[in-house]
Structure formats: structure tokens, C-alpha cells
């Protein structure tokens, strides 16, 4: 008798559908951007010197950069906010004028030394730019403004990205005669700060260097998967 009951259960199980109807879903991408006032700046400061000998060029560059670093420390820049970004010594060649086939002659060497600097007190940035040039820096490159702690702004940007994605999904669902159901998943695609960069040349420095910090944008992008139901 028990064998008959088991067989009946198995028979009924086989009569049930092997798969359910897939639930319709919509996948959208939302974007959010929050503009905020920066509170730090990043700057590449470099020193370049030339000499007949490689060691002389490197010594001159090192001495000039040491003066620049000392000035930065006096201006309140901490050691943790300064990092060497590159050191190089390159030969300088020259051809005789008008002689394309002539053998290049070694005329000297060019030494370069650069440091990446983070300035936390933006009120002192203009003075720092001026003083490091007076102390021997002849390259100022890639001034970028950013935010020291972007967590709050990025959280706001993510919230805006989710709102943007939901608005897109609602619009597309309505156009298709459907209604949005529950959100099935949310995935963060990217989140980042968008620093504003300003290129500068040491030759354009003056006694007073005006610096306008403006705003920087922090952005987020999310992917949403949302169920759809018929109206």
C-alpha cells in the first residue's frame, strides 16, 4: 500500500511544470553628480638644470630642489604630503648646423627632479606657488583641486544616481504599458571625484599668484534591476 502512495506522489510531481514563467525585468543605469568646494590641492613641482657633466647637472638640480622642499616645510606642508615623482638625467646632443649627416655631439646633460605636493591649506597656495619659483622651481604642472574626505559627497551622489535610475525605469515602463515592481538588485558601477586641473608655467608666475578654487564634481553610477508588472 505504501508503495502505491509513493508512486502516486511521483506521478503527480511529474505532471507539474518543470520551470516557472520568467519574470520580466528592466535594467537601467543611473548617474549622480554632486558639486562641492574643494579643500585640498595637488601640485607637481619640478626643478631642471643643465651642465656639461652629468654629476654637475644632478648636483645643481638636487641643491635647488632641497631649497624648494625646505620652503614648502616652512610654509606648513608636512613631510607626508610630499613625494618624489621622478628623477632623470638625460644627455643633450647637438648636430652641426646645416649638416644632416653629421655625427651628433654630446654637449651636456639635463637633470630633472620632481615632487608631488599636497596642499591642505588652500589659503596659502598662492604664496607657495610664488615662493617655490623664487627658490628655484622652474616647472609647475597639473594643479588639481580635490576633497580630502569625499565620503559624504559620494554618498549623496550615489543617492542621486539611484533616483535617476528609478526615474528612467519608470518612464520606460510607462511607455511600454507596464508598472515597476520591486527593485531586485542595485550595483555600483563607479564612484569618483572629478578634480579640476590647471596647467601653469613658471615663466608666467608673478609676485602675487591668484588662485580660484571653484568647485569639483563627485560622481556615482549605479545599475538597477527592477521587476515589471502589467497594469
Model description:
With 231 residues, this protein is an alpha+beta fold. Helices cover 30% and strands 41% of the residues. The protein has a 5-stranded antiparallel β-sheet with strand order 3-4-2-5-7. The protein has a 3-stranded antiparallel β-sheet with strand order 1-8-6. α2 (54-74) runs antiparallel to α3. The protein is elongated and about 85 Å long. The model is unreliable at 1-16 and 196-207 (pLDDT under 50).
Distance from N terminus to C terminus (CA atoms, Å) equals 50 Å
Work out the helicity level: 25-40%
Counted by DSSP, the helix tally is 4
What structural class do helix, strand and pairing data support? alpha+beta
Q: What fraction of residues sit in β-strands?
A: 35-45%
Number of DSSP-assigned strands? 8
List the helices and strands and how they pair.
Layout: H1 2-15, E1 25-36, E2 40-51, H2 54-74, E3 82-94, E4 105-119, H3 125-134, E5 139-146, H4 151-175, E6 178-194, E7 196-198, E8 216-230
Helix pairs in contact: 2-3
Amino acid at each position: 500500500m505504501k508503495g502505491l502512495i509513493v508512486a502516486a506522489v511521483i506521478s503527480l510531481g511529474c505532471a507539474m511544470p518543470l520551470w516557472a514563467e520568467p519574470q520580466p525585468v528592466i535594467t537601467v543605469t543611473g548617474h549622480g553628480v554632486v558639486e562641492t568646494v574643494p579643500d585640498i590641492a595637488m601640485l607637481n613641482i619640478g626643478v631642471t638644470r643643465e651642465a656639461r657633466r652629468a654629476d654637475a647637472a644632478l648636483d645643481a638640480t638636487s641643491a635647488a630642489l632641497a631649497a624648494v622642499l625646505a620652503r614648502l616645510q616652512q610654509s606648513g606642508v608636512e613631510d607626508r604630503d610630499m613625494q618624489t615623482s621622478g628623477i632623470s638625467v638625460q644627455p643633450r646632443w647637438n648636430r652641426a648646423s646645416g649638416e644632416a649627416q653629421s655625427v651628433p655631439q654630446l654637449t651636456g646633460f639635463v637633470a630633472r627632479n620632481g615632487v608631488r605636493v599636497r596642499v591642505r591649506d588652500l589659503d596659502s597656495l598662492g604664496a607657495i606657488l610664488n615662493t617655490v619659483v623664487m627658490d628655484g622651481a622652474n616647472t609647475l604642472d597639473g594643479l588639481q583641486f580635490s576633497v580630502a574626505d569625499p565620503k559624504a559627497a559620494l554618498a549623496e551622489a550615489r543617492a542621486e544616481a539611484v533616483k535617476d535610475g528609478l526615474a528612467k525605469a519608470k518612464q520606460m515602463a510607462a511607455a511600454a504599458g507596464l508598472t515597476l515592481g520591486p527593485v531586485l538588485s542595485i550595483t555600483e558601477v563607479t564612484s569618483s571625484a572629478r578634480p579640476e586641473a590647471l596647467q601653469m608655467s613658471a615663466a608666467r608666475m608673478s609676485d602675487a599668484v591668484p588662485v580660484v578654487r571653484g568647485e569639483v564634481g563627485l560622481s556615482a553610477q549605479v545599475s538597477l534591476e527592477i521587476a515589471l508588472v502589467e497594469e
